[in-house]
Fold this sequence. Notes:
The chain folds into three domains: 2-185, no CATH class; 202-380, Growth Hormone, Chain: A, CATH 1.20.1250; 411-597, MFS general substrate transporter like domains (Growth Hormone, Chain: A, Up-down Bundle). By secondary structure, the protein is of the alpha+beta class. The strands form four sheets. It has a seven-stranded antiparallel sheet. It has a two-stranded antiparallel ribbon with strand order 4-5. The protein has a two-stranded antiparallel ribbon with strand order 8-12. It has helices at 187-223, 228-232, 239-243, 248-253, 261-281, 289-317, 323-367, 370-373, 390-395, 397-409, 414-424, 426-442, 446-474, 476-493, 495-498, 504-531, 538-589, and strands at 2-14, 20-42, 45-60, 62-63, 68-69, 81-90, 95-105, 116-118, 121-131, 136-141, 155-157, 170-172, 178-180. It starts with a strand and ends in an 8-residue tail after the last helix. Helix 6 (289-317) packs across helix 17. It contains 17 helices and 13 strands.
Amino acid sequence: xxxxxxxxxxxxxxxxxxxxxxxxxxxxxxxxxxxxxxxxxxxxxxxxxxxxxxxxxxxxxxxxxxxxxxxxxxxxxxxxxxxxxxxxxxxxxxxxxxxxxxxxxxxxxxxxxxxxxxxxxxxxxxxxxxxxxxxxxxxxxxxxxxxxxxxxxxxxxxxxxxxxxxxxxxxxxxxxxxxxxxxxxxxxxxxxxxxxxxxxxxxxxxxxxxxxxxxxxxxxxxxxxxxxxxxxxxxxxxxxxxxxxxxxxxxxxxxxxxxxxxxxxxxxxxxxxxxxxxxxxxxxxxxxxxxxxxxxxxxxxxxxxxxxxxxxxxxxxxxxxxxxxxxxxxxxxxxxxxxxxxxxxxxxxxxxxxxxxxxxxxxxxxxxxxxxxxxxxxxxxxxxxxxxxxxxxxxxxxxxxxxxxxxxxxxxxxxxxxxxxxxxxxxxxxxxxxxxxxxxxxxxxxxxxxxxxxxxxxxxxxxxxxxxxxxxxxxxxxxxxxxxxxxxxxxxxxxxxxxxxxxxxxxxxxxxxxxxxxxxxxxxxxxxxxxxxxxxxxxxxxxxxxxxxxxxxxxxxxxxxxxxxxxxxxxxxxxxxxxxxxxxxxxxxxxxxxxxx
Length: 597
């Protein structure tokens, strides 16, 4: 906390020629506080959050150009509230990735008369590089989502000022004697940022428990001395995610309240998740494991149902040009949820114990509900079921249910597209599944593999962002071809460790490169999947496509071990790269038209 009284504070004033006319002195008082929290979640992973408040004002100042008393007004270019959040991962061999959010809200004036005010805004910056003790090389992007905002103003008196266009995001009091000719703030950019913020918080909230149950929980159970047979039962928690397409028609057809069709599902499912997390926190993991397993299974059911609703909401609120960056947010937040649920929560469990860790996760998921609570969802297109007569629905409820799936599959070109989805990640899944056993055979410890994949997941987060930014300028088809070619190259790069090149930096490059390229391809595929959905059945169509993509990957993962026994690691990696290259050729020869914007 701080309080400062400043005499002869310099105020920059402009005359009617737009040039600096004079620098006047003023007395001011500045009061405020700053709060910063930092955590080292794991070795190399730093999370820093900050919040600041500033109450500054003129205690004695009269504008010599306008003869106006500005005493008591706020100082220009000082936000009332500011906040920041940064996540940085620095691998032991020097690879660095960093994402940061900086935002301001409250009053932020451009003039000493407090006549012109900037609305709240947030900026996202990202950095990827290589850092050593004496040097570093970085690729960075500031203002990642191209948010347009007013940065400066020039003022003139009313008597000599021409007519100028004012920014819709710039507020002015009724007694102003000034006009602003600042850069026009772009309202759509602010709207896109709001959409991304809402979707991002929802994707993190739904993926956080999944990552915790499938990644952190087995390690925690083993640490508590539980048998591997019991630990193996936790794999059942992934079933609802694979089978969620079965109940997706109900999410599309029915609303649970008048708070918005998909919003009602999201709030209900996320609310149930919070309640069950609190209940599970007070269950004994050893003596009440099967009750706990049932509770966790329900949480995954609610999370997967929320995923249907969030995907459908995203399809409805994102325009075709926005879907690339929207899917980048989806992929990036999934990786962030994986990092938090699979890494940070493991540390919290060690510090706070089972009860404290789950209560903390419940509180975090509850906090992530705040943005969607304030969102006003517009009515979606009429549900497909609403377009049929009620007598038909009563007479053939089963056929009506099946028709929601078959009607999508019968659309022109959809059959070929679904077949492409089924085989698209076959080769990639084979390669990825067999890479971990190869690392063990090479002689890496579990901790070394864990640190390696921590870096790889950070690279995946960056890949999702890069892919989303490039989808719009490159187009869907070109992006998919280029990114899949990159993924083919990384698939074949796995041959080097299989042939005996096993230096740790090379292994980091292979694992990080794979996750980078994979997430870039996934963003494009998800964007195209959105394009191909029907607005009236967005949940069903998108979920069905995602399930087919997942089933193809799961099948390839299942047979990869048998294939490795037959032809070895090198053979599997060659087959995987060949299949991925073949998919690229198919896309180049016979693919879709670009969606209209």
